[in-house]
Hints:
With 264 residues, the protein is mainly β.
Amino acid sequence: xxxxLLFCVLVMSxxxxxxxxxxxxxxxxxxxxxxxxxxxxTIMGLPNGSAFALGIExxxxxxxxxxxxxxxxxxxxxxxxQSASIVVDVHPVEPGSEVCVKAKTGxxxxxxxxxxxxxxxxxxxxxxxIATGKIDYLEVTGTSPVNTDEVIIAMxxxxxxxxxxxxxxxxTLTGATNGSALIxxxxxxxxxxxxxxxxxxxxxxxxxxxxxxxxIGDVALVAYMVVNRAPHQVPAADxxxxxxxxxxxxxxxxxxxxxxxxxL
Length: 264
Ligand SMILES: [Ca+2]
Ligand SMILES: [Ca+2]
C-alpha cells in the first residue's frame, strides 16, 4: 500500500517536473542526407506563446580556400515567430576579419556584420516578427585563418511561436558537404531534441564531433567526458564496452589516433 502511494507521488512529481514541455514532441529526420537533400523537423503539440529555438551547428571543411559560406535554405515556417532573433557563433575566424550574417525573407534582407575578437565571432541580432511562410535563407560568411581545416558554425533562430501546433519545418543546407549538422530544438529554454544528421556518408566510429574524421578533437572530447565536462556519449564513445565512459575509452581513442591501435 505504502509502495503504491510512493509510486503515485513519484509519478505526480515527474508530471510536475516535465509538465512545462511534456506535450511537445519533436523529431528530426532523416539520419543521413546527401548534400542539398532536405532535413525535416516534425513538431507536435507546440502551444502558442512557447519560446521556440531552432539551432543548427555544422563543421565547414575548407580545402584550398579561406572564405566560408554556410546557409540554411528554404525554411518553410508553419507558424509565425514573434520577436525573433538570430544568434551565430563561429570559430576559428581570421582575427579582426568581418563575419556577416544575412536573413532573407521575401523582399526583406537583413544583413548584420561584426568584426571578430580574436578567432571567435559572435553575433546576436533581433529580426522582428517573422510571419508564417518561407525564410529564403539564413547565411553566414567570413574568412578563416590560413591553414585551417574546418570552421565550426552554430546558428540559432528563436522567437515566440504563434500559429498551428502540429507542423513540419523542412530546410536544406549548403556549405557543409562532408560532415554533419547538429540540430537542436529548445522549447521554453528546455532542449527537447538534439540530433546529428550526417551529410555524405553515415557515422564514422569514434567521430564524436561529427566532422567524419577520428582525430585529436575527438580525443579531447572523450577526455572532457571522463572529467564530466562534456555530455557522455554512450555507446558512441564507450570503446571498451563496459557501459560507461571512462579512462579506458580515453586511452583507446588516443592510441587509435596515434596509430598504435588498429581499430577502435
Ligand atoms: Ca571527429
Ligand atoms: Ca567504457
